UniProtKB/TrEMBL annotation:
The keyword RNA-binding does not apply. Residues 1-22 form the signal peptide. GO terms for molecular function: serine-type endopeptidase activity. It catalyses: Preferential cleavage: Arg-|-Xaa, Lys-|-Xaa. It comes from Drosophila lebanonensis. This is Trypsin 3A1.
Length: 273
């Protein structure tokens, strides 16, 4: 399986080299242009290519990523909003390449984490919904994203994409501009074996990375989207949740599997609307 992944990764690297010389990558969900700089192993991206992405902030600092489901509702990881009884502490910036300025900056009215969310020993059911104080105004840089449904076919070798303002390594300094990179699903049984002595990888989680490491989400990317291109549009497959280190070959990133929570999301959205 990894031999196929290596071929696809090599092809993507070739495409990225072409992008750096000025060519555009046609993903059919948006053209991405590679820019200077290196999320881990990634490149800068315009918010107009990923208009569902938001920055979730506490005070004046970026804390986590999130995804726009409606003009009032944001999906993120439950561990990103531990102070869920104090929604006034959180803010959302949408529609900007930079987490610190531009776009729309809106307060949070209500937070509903999954009732069975467990921490700190396990990050199971790591999912939450945020209700904004005011509705976002849709534009080319602010758009909702649909969830992958059980009816959607996601091939194991299909490229997945992660975006965010997290660190590009082990430092705690977050990036000021949005970044993206491509990764692939990792066999679930292999992932469970890898993490056997570290934590429990459940069926409500997805493992994703690349065989040789070097591409991953990192600190500050938590809660952000794991997406793929289905039917010429982005769809949300997972939520950045946890992992060991950043971009380590032996430890793929762990993501909340959205399809396991489609019913919970639908029911909770009704409570918020």
């Amino acid at each position: 399986m990894y031999s196929i992944q290596l071929f696809v990764v090599a092809l993507l690297l070739l495409i990225q080299q072409q992008l750096s010389s000025g060519a555009a990558l046609n993903t059919t969900a948006g053209a991405i242009r590679n820019k200077d700089g290196r999320i881990v192993g990634g490149s800068e991206a315009s918010i107009s290519y990923f208009p569902h992405q938001v920055s979730i902030q506490m005070g004046t600092r970026h804390a986590c990523g999130g995804s726009i489901l409606t003009n009032r509702i944001i999906l993120t990881a439950a561990h990103c909003v531990r102070e869920y009884s104090k929604p006034q502490l959180y803010f959302v910036r949408a529609g900007s390449d930079e987490w610190a300025r531009g776009g729309s900056f809106v307060g949070v009215r209500r937070i509903i984490p999954h009732a069975q969310f467990e921490e700190p020993t396990r990050l199971n059911h790591d999912i939450a919904l945020l209700l904004l104080q005011q509705p976002l105004v849709y534009s080319p840089s602010i758009q909702p994203i649909a969830l992958v449904s059980p009816m959607d076919f996601v091939h194991p070798q299909m490229p997945l994409y992660i975006t965010g303002w997290g660190t590009t390594g082990t430092s705690l300094i977050t990036e000021t501009r949005l970044r993206y990179t491509s990764i692939f699903q990792v066999d679930h049984a292999e992932c469970q074996a890898t993490y056997m002595d570290v934590g429990v990888v459940t069926d409500t989680m997805i493992c994703a990375g690349v065989p040789f490491g070097g591409r991953d989400s990192c600190q500050g990317d938590s809660g952000g989207p794991l997406i793929t291109n289905i039917g010429h549009r982005w769809k949300l497959l997972g939520i950045v949740s946890w992992g060991i280190g950043c971009g380590q070959a032996q430890y793929p990133g762990i993501y909340t599997r959205v399809t396991a929570y489609n019913d919970w999301v639908a029911q909770t959205m009704k409570l918020l609307q």
